[in-house]
Amino acid sequence: MTRWKNFKAHLALFALVVGPGIITANVDNDAGGIATYSVAGATFGYSLLWVLAPTCLLLVLVQEMCSRMGVVTGKGLSALIRERFGLGVSFYLMIALFFTNLGNVVADFAGLAASAEIFGLHRFWAVPIGAFLLWHMVIKGSYKTIERVFFVACVFYVAYLISGFLAKPDWSTAAYQSVVPTNSWTGASFYMIVGIVGTTIAPWMQFYQQASVVEKGIPLKHYRYSKWDTIAGAIVVTIVCYFIVLACAATLHKEGITIETAGDAAKALKPVAGNYCAGLFAFGLMSASLFGAAILPISTATSICEAMGWERGVNRKFTEAPQYYSLYTVVLFAGAAVALAASNKMLVPIMIFSQVINGVLLPVIIFFMLKITSDKTIMGAHVNSRGFNIVAWSGAIITASISVIMVVMTLIQ
Amino acid sequence: MTETVKTMENAASPRLNGIGENAMPAVVFYNFSDLLGQPVRYEDEARPFGKLYDIGASTYTSYPLAISLDISTRDGHAILPWSAVKIMTEKETVLTRTSEAAPTADFWARRDVLDDQVVDVSGAQVLRVNDVNLIYSENKLIFGHVEVGLRGILRRLRFERFVAFLAQWLFDYTLKDTFVTWRHIQVMSPGGIPGGVKVSKISEERLADIHPAELADILEQLGVKDRQVLFNSLSVETAADTLEEINPEFQRTLVSQGEPGRAADILEEMPPDEAADVLRDLGPDAQGLINHMDHESAAEVQTLLAHEEESAGGVLDTNCLESLTTETAASIMEKLRILPEDVKIYNLIYVVDENRTLKGVISLRGLFRAAPDSLLGTIMDEVLVQVSPDTRLKEVARDFAKYGFQALPVVDENGVFMGIVRYDSALSQLADFLKD
User: Fold this and answer.
1) What is the pTM of this model?
2) What ipTM does this complex have?
3) What pLDDT sits at residue A369?
4) Is A380 near chain B, with CB under 8 Å?
5) Beta-bridge partner residues of B381
């Protein structure tokens, strides 16, 4: 009886803090994510599945640091970087973040364009209408309601789980290659690995999750519940991407189909949806794209304004926070414009390229985070443990090395 | 922007030309960022032994005064007293040898101010500091302003001249400095140590003048520790008013991480339904605080907590004026005159019998018109609408929308008057009805 009571008390406290981790993780599977995982499965079969487990571990470590920093300091990540490393460093980092996030917004609009094309709607209509609706929604402050709608739309990913089973994958090969790397070490596979890491642990996620934790005002003594939130989010995200890769490997790769447009990627859902797979995929891709395109410009504007000390937040008027609204608007519409200008064949490569850029910036962000979370004057008793630091530093160094190898190999070719 | 943020063109312009001691003008303005990293040497040596890393100040005066220096040398940091400074220029700092120990600084400019958040207590806003303007006069270094505008950012990024030129050439626009005088600046917890800098007397007085809604806005923008320090420096009354205005997510942290006795005092000061809202969010920690509250407030809050949040009982306000059928109009008028400030007066006064059974209502207008000696029982109107403590807030809101009252009486199953529901308690639900 008391155990049940205890459990209920824990659950109640968990309910108070849950959200930032799980929501961030689900936005993480945006258009860039779906494209990257699909291409990884279609091109490399099961052979890159081994990347997911260590990526998931690094994702937990990185996002845990964010929510810990948020709870302990009550400040956003960019504010902490500004205070710890000064204006110069933060300024150039914010420029990098701006362009990286812009790449992700482009990917999301590319996803919107691609899904609209499947529905037979020309992107000349879909992209501007989507951009304007999102812009209007944030200016009118109905963003939180829409967030819930998108969140519910995430059940779409269940389709990949079912498809993954129905496609009858070669389970023993899949299981073996989930643990042991057997892929060839070419420039293309390095490019793909950086893309997978970059889309799973995108730099904007750290800023976004920390901001959400701060906004939620989670008290320090309830922090451990926040940790569960982060871990739950990371596990959900990893399961989803595992099954996207698996489903694509078992269908597209087996039949030798390479993904050139989103329509090709949709065929991975054939086992579950038959001839309706294109429609199902387009629906999922569209909601994921809109979810990403709604959150990324806000997150970008918030991070930059926080670093530069400008007023921010959708509850302020334009005249009170001109930089915030300008940044938001520029990121949103510039992203839409690039996606509009690109040719149909370019959409999928754009989505993947943006995730590769994520992967290149990621180790830099992790470096700053590790410095801050090891600083006693900022974190007090909640600094990283020795073991944590060893694992996280190795993760960052490995990620950085893979990025460097990728860049070098791409330049050589 | 408020009046304290004045734009002063070229205030930082007088620069030092020659470095000769005699050529020294009486007053020189320095930007702190320009001094950082400049070489420091002893007067009897030509070679610098380190670089200026930070300047420590005393807040004893209303404009802080530099009292110590942090110099980074090859063997680590050396902390020296300001009295060792013979001359400080933008190119170098020359010291005389001293055996004095450096006094303890109240804050350090680089560690605690530059790139950090400060509170402008006059303009009621949180600012991030882009630079600090120092006044160097008679070998004293005084903290004059903080720079919070774009120009400070550009200067530190070394784009100032370029952007200023472009702005002038393209748009005929002169870049302006945005300063806030140090008199209005409250430095927050230095080095992340809460309470490290005491909130100054001036700040405390000015903070009390700021509207609670603005104070809440300031607190929301600060980090956890700074927020708590500033909140703790407020008087119990101001803290209660501010807590009502602040984002509910931060309420529970401010209350649960503060000292329980004080938190209980603040909750007592709040309207009981607001206090109950805060306590409800605290979950299991609430009981500890209720135990600290005085008996009456605790009982009131517990009654509210016993009811569901979204019901009339959950937002019950017992702090209202009620009168007996046997009282006269004149005696009620007198009661109104001496009513404590926290009891809100709405248009209707509730009339009960000796068992506190609700018998009727009388409007203020009716009261003024009645003969002074008439008994309330004879002049009161019947109760048009009343709700029970279990009535859903949605229903209550519908009644507000329908009848247009500012408050509704709450009676239990025996018709006994319990208190009122104020319209603002049902405001969130009310909005749904007003849209139609």
Assistant:
1) 0.81
2) 0.77
3) 94
4) yes
5) B361
